[in-house]
Design a protein that fits this description.
2 domains; alpha/beta; 14% strand
């Protein structure tokens, strides 16, 4: 796999300053390693497809051609062994708009939406901003890894006002790939307690080499019939700004409700480049993705080795997916919000506080390692220096 990574230049440093980048809207001297956005160029096939479309010169209203459906069907069949029917697919401009729309469509105001924390912070926004209640079923962290507390999960799913669960598969930020057995058990519990599942699978392609993920809807007939799945080429191929995603909804009743909601919310119409980019990515991006996964595996190893040797007060949580590393800093401090702010102010390193992902994230930090290795090493050196300074300042404070 290392040889494969050399076919593409992931070591190239691309200057993103001045490009209206959310990630790179920084102060002088800062290094952003927070939001889930990669510093690698998207596959050339995607860029070429966009250029061809742009050269036409007319950007009127667009429709979804058969090749868009075929691209999703082929990718999920070939890469993930999941047979998707074209009728199940609904276009959306993004996973987050889809989540918020479906929360509104599939639940009533005041009902519970269950999430497994620590989890992607925008889940909270999609629930709370729509007048629903967050119901957390915290994951259990032990021996350097996370697992599901199924007793707690069932107790909360059985609540009469819990009507929806948002599953993160693979899980962001802890990098966990759920097993078939775990997913099947979740599906059985949700079926038993009449809870619909939204499975956010946007990170599904970013697994370590040799590790695959299992689509929730592929596990069993019950999982398929009670769920809708959010997928996209955006995280996989670094093209979130092109606003192209899909919802997979096998159950006709759920699909009709979801489709109506997305259309009512005006997030179901593709822009002129969304189709071409997705078709090119899924059609020609596999070699690039396999090389990327090999490169990111090296990145993860670099982080784990560096922290073990240079920052022994911090532990790397074991993960099999995403380019996001979840760092246990509780031996340093239980206040990760303060620690993240300190690292940024003293070293310029901008990483995410774990508290954004739920109360159980206190004491953890999330590091985005999707950048050239030279940049990653810069970030790690800043991290080591910042932790050392933080501990020294704390020792001084304790002496006062």
């Amino acid at each position: 796999m290392k040889e494969l990574a050399k076919e593409f230049d992931f070591d190239e440093i691309v200057d993103r300053l001045g490009t209206d980048s959310l990630k790179w809207g920084i102060r002088d001297g800062e290094l952003p390693m927070w939001v889930a956005d990669m510093d690698f160029r998207t596959p050339s096939a995607v860029t070429e497809a966009i250029i061809r479309r742009a050269e036409h010169g007319i950007f009127g209203y667009s429709v979804l051609p058969k090749r868009w459906y075929d691209a999703y069907i082929s990718w999920w069949s070939t890469r993930h062994g999941f047979a998707v029917d074209a009728s199940w697919l609904v276009f959306s401009t993004g996973v987050v708009p889809s989540l918020s729309s479906m929360v509104r469509r599939l639940t009533a105001v005041g009902e519970n939406v269950l999430i497994q924390t620590p989890v992607y912070n925008i889940f909270f926004n999609s629930i709370v901003n729509n007048g629903r209640r967050v119901l957390e079923s915290p994951l259990v962290y032990e021996d350097g890894a996370y697992r599901i507390d199924f007793d707690d999960l069932e107790r909360k799913l059985s609540h009469s006002e819990t009507t929806l669960m948002i599953l993160c598969n693979p899980h962001n930020p802890v990098g966990k790939i759920w097993s078939r057995e775990e997913l099947e058990r979740i599906g059985e519990l949700c079926f038993r307690h009449h809870v619909t599942v939204i499975s956010d699978e946007i990170h599904c392609d970013l697994t370590l080499p040799g590790c695959g993920y299992i689509p929730f809807a592929s596990v069993s007939e019950r999982c398929r019939e009670i769920s809708v799945t959010c997928v996209a080429p955006s995280k996989t191929f670094n093209m979130a700004g092109l606003q192209s995603s899909a919802v997979i909804a096998p159950n006709l009743f759920l699909r009709q409700r979801v489709s109506r909601g997305l259309n009512n919310d005006e997030v179901a119409e593709p822009n002129a480049f969304a189709v071409e980019a997705a078709v090119a990515a899924f059609g020609f991006g596999a070699p690039w993705l396999d090389a990327l996964r090999a490169y990111l595996a090296e990145s993860r190893q670099m982080v784990e080795k560096f922290i073990c040797e240079r920052v022994p007060q911090v532990d790397c949580v074991r993960g099999e997916a995403t380019y996001l590393l979840w760092l246990d800093c509780r031996k340093v401090t239980g206040d990760s919000r303060r620690l993240a702010a300190y690292l940024r102010s003293r070293t310029g390193l901008w990483i995410s506080s774990g508290e954004a992902y739920g109360a159980s994230g206190a004491g953890f930090l999330r590091l985005n390692a999707a950048c050239p290795h030279s940049v990653l090493m810069d970030g790690l050196e800043r991290f080591a220096r910042g932790i050392s300074l933080f501990l020294a300042d704390g020792a001084v404070e304790n002496l006062k």
